[in-house]
Structure formats: structure tokens, C-alpha cells
Amino acid sequence: MAAAATMAAAARELVLRAGASDMEEEEGPLGGGPGLQEPLQIGELDITSDEFILDEVDVHIQANLEDELVKEALKTGVDLRHYSKQVELELQQIEQKSIRDYIQESENIASLHNQITACDAVLERMEQMLGAFQSDLSSISSEIRTLQEQSGAMNIRLRNRQAVRGKLGELVDGLVAPVTEPRFLEQLQELDAKAAAVREQEARGTAACADVRGVLDRLRVKKANDQLSDPTDSPAEIQFLLGNERATAKEIRDEYVETLSKIYLSYYRSYLGRLMKVQYEEVAEKDDLMGPSLRSRNTIFTLGTRGSVISPAELEAPILVPHTAQRGEQRYPFEALFRSQHYALLDNSCREYLFICEFFVVSGPAAHDLFHAVMGRTLSMTQKHLESYLVDCYDAIAVFLCIHIVLRFRNITAKRDVPALDRYWEQVLALLWPRFELILEMNVQSVRSTDPQRLGGLDTRPHYITRRYAEFSSALVSINQTIPNERTMQLLGQLQVEVENFVLRVAAEFSSRKEQLVFLINNYDMMLGVLMERAADDSKEVESFQQLLNARTQ
Prior knowledge:
The chain has 18 helices and no strands. It folds into four domains: 67-175; 179-227; 235-435, no CATH class; 450-553. α1 packs antiparallel against α4 (80-104) and α15 packs parallel to α17 (513-534). It has helices spanning 2-26, 54-65, 68-76, 80-104, 106-175, 182-203, 209-227, 249-275, 312-315, 322-327, 334-359, 364-390, 396-415, 422-448, 464-480, 486-507, 513-534, 540-553. Keywords: Golgi apparatus, Protein transport, Transport.
């Protein structure tokens, strides 16, 4: 196209040149000869003007004549004017075609424009996001530097504290008297004896007692640090206002209550949490009743060695040490954990109450109030833990053993002359008794609703439900014999009636009279044998099944 345009321009110049020569020869410079079809509109031409230089035109024409296309046209004798018009027409056609193409593609061009605009917007948002991300990275980098500085400072403080603790530890070890050494305890006993002697002489009016009274009081303050030891029997390391001679009695009491209540609560919360980690993994659940549940396990219906927890030897045995039990992979039933927890609570509560009475010289309601100010939060936490555990407990033997543990611990506190725990024991029993009765009633209902026809194949051997009942009933009877409870006997009587009815319903499923009698005799004999191993010979259960067995065998 460029070559054609160049050729057209050259042709026009040649036409102008040729036209000018013809006009000069035929009609003069400005005439129009008949050889031209269209007059050449050149306007007024001033050949004398400086703007029109023929030499330059000649050079331009000569350069065009040297063009290959122009030479080819001249050789073939092409009319340059006609050729110029033809080229112009072709250019116009090409231009119009190009315009039509643009019009046809206008939608695509517009779509492309919109896409480019959308890409520009997306790129702009990405630029903004990258800018924000760069800003966040700068902020994070600054925070990391700050944390590194803080970490370095904390490491320095930690090393300094460790160094100081080592020096102070050596100093404290040299100053603190270990209260667990026999020699120190002997001196405390001697101090008690001297203080008692001084009080006795003061009661008689001896004037010399006033001279030693102040010394003995200060020694009693030192003795207090022995009594305020942690429940784990570690040496006392907590210093109160007791050593401050200017402290008032109220300040001493308030400081004592605040500090000891925190110590006891923290210790028992930690001990209780670690203690529950060594409980049996198999815990009785709602489906573990005497009825035909596949989830039932014989372990919750048999007593075995579990009853030893209420024997005198184990009742006041040392408490369980959870981490030692975990290392030995030992597991304990709930009643064993309950005994250990409450024996620790009983022992520390007795010592705490007696010390409060002696040191603060209080008794009666005043001693009771001060004791509960110290131990109240601990007792409340222990009670709430028991309450939450019993909600999902269906092990009647465990609950009944816990009841008898509480009954025995209550007698122990009474012998030690510590009435401060009486209310706590009553609250614990108020949680245990209703749960125990509910579990028994659920077992009664479970046996009552059992349909023999849904038990599958039957034979004349003792049924597993009657075996469960025999083990379960003999366990509760043997425990109840130590401290009888009439309500327990009533519930066991209801359970026995339902079991007897169940045995008769199952026997009725046999077609022959002989099989019915064999089934009844086998079940009665099994239940009687198990009951006679655990219960006394004159118990109601033994007597009842003995009569039933005799009636079937005679």
C-alpha cells in the first residue's frame, strides 16, 4: 500500500509536469488545450516567488522516476493520470473496507476494552493488597524485633533470679529449722509442757509467772509455723504476721485464714484431679442394670475384695499417692479413691480444728466459724465434685460403700472431739443416700420389665439375671450388716420379690412340669448358696430362699 501511494504521488507530479509542458506549447502558460479532459486546477502560480523553486521540483521528480514501479509504468506506457485515479479509488475502497471491518468488530473491540479496564481494576486492587501486605510485613517485622528484645530481657531476668534463688536457698537452708526432725518436735512438746505449767501457776496466783509469760508467748509464735504446715506434711515455709509482735490479734487471724484457705483449696483440688486418673476405666453407666443389657458387667454386681475398704485396717490406712499408682499402672474403684480423699480431709481438718482452738483460744461456735473460714472453700469444692460424679454413677455397691465410709469417719471425728465436720458429713450423706436408693429402684424396675420371651434360648441352668441378683444382694446385705439400715432392707425386699416373679415367669416358658421344677430348683439353690457365703444364716433373704427351695424339693 505504501508503494502504491508513492507511485500515485509520483504519477501526479508527472501529470502536472506533462500538463504544464503541453499548455506552454499549445496555448500558453495558462491556457487549456483540447488534449486535457479535465482542466488542471493549479490556481495562481507565481513563478517568481521564492516558495516555488523548479530545481527542487526537478530533483523530486527525478527521484520518483528512479522508483522501480514508476519505471515499470513508464515502460509499459500506462497513463499516469488514469493510474493515479485508479490507485486513489483502490485506496478509498481499502479504507472503506477497513472501516467496515472495524464496525463489524466493534462489539469485540468494546468487549476487549471492558476486559482491559477490568484487568486494570484487578491489577489496581492487587497493587493495593500487595501494598497492605508489605505494610503488614513491616509491622510484623517490627513486632518480632520487639519480642526478641523482650525475650532477651526476660532471659536476663531469669538468669538473675536463678542466681539469686541459689544464693538465697543456701541462706534459707541455714536459717530455717526443719519441723519434722524428732529433736525439734521434742522441744515443741517441752515448750507445751512449760506453757501448761505457767498457766497452772498463774491460776494459783504465782507472781513470778509474769516474768516468763512474754518469753513463752514469743516461743508459741515460733511454734505456730510448725502447725501451719502444708497438708502434704512438708516443712513450713510460709511466714505470717504471727512473728510480728506489733500485729493485732485480728490481723493475725485474718492473715491466717486467707493464707491457709488458699493452701488447702489448691492442695485438695490438685490431689483430687490426680486421684481420679487412677480410677478404673470401666465405670458403671445407665445401661449397667440387672436387666438383660449386653452392656452389663459382673464387676458392678459382685463385692469381691471391695468390701475391705471399710475394714479397720484399711479405713485409716495411708492415703493413696497418685503418681506412684500411675507409675505402677495401678487402678482403684471409686470407693477406694473416696476413702483416700476423705481420710486426708478428715485428718487435716481434725489437726486444723484443734490448733485453731488452742492457738486462737476459741471454742464452740467461734471455733466452728473460724474453722469453716479456713476449710469452707475446700469442703465446698469436694462436695461439688462428688455431686457431679454421682450424676452419672450407676454402681450401687460403690455408692453404698461410700455411705459406710462416711458413717465410720463421722464416728472417728466424734472420738477426736472435732464437731466441725458434722455438717459436712450430713451434706455428703444427703448426696449419697438418694443416689443409692435411685439405683436400687432402677434395678427393681429393670427386673420387673424384663420379658422372658425376649431372652432367647432358655435352659434349666441358673439364669444370669438370678446370678447377678444373688451376687448383688449378698454384697449389699453383707455391707448393711455392719451398720444396719431399714430403708436398704426394704429396697432389697422389693428387688427380691421382683426376682422371684421373674424366675416364675421364665419357668412358665418350659413346656414340661419337670423342666420347670428343675429350673426353679437350680436357681433357688444357686441364689441360696451365694447368699449364705456373704450374709448371716438368719438373714431374711437366706430364710426366704431356703423356704422356696424346700417347697420345690419336697
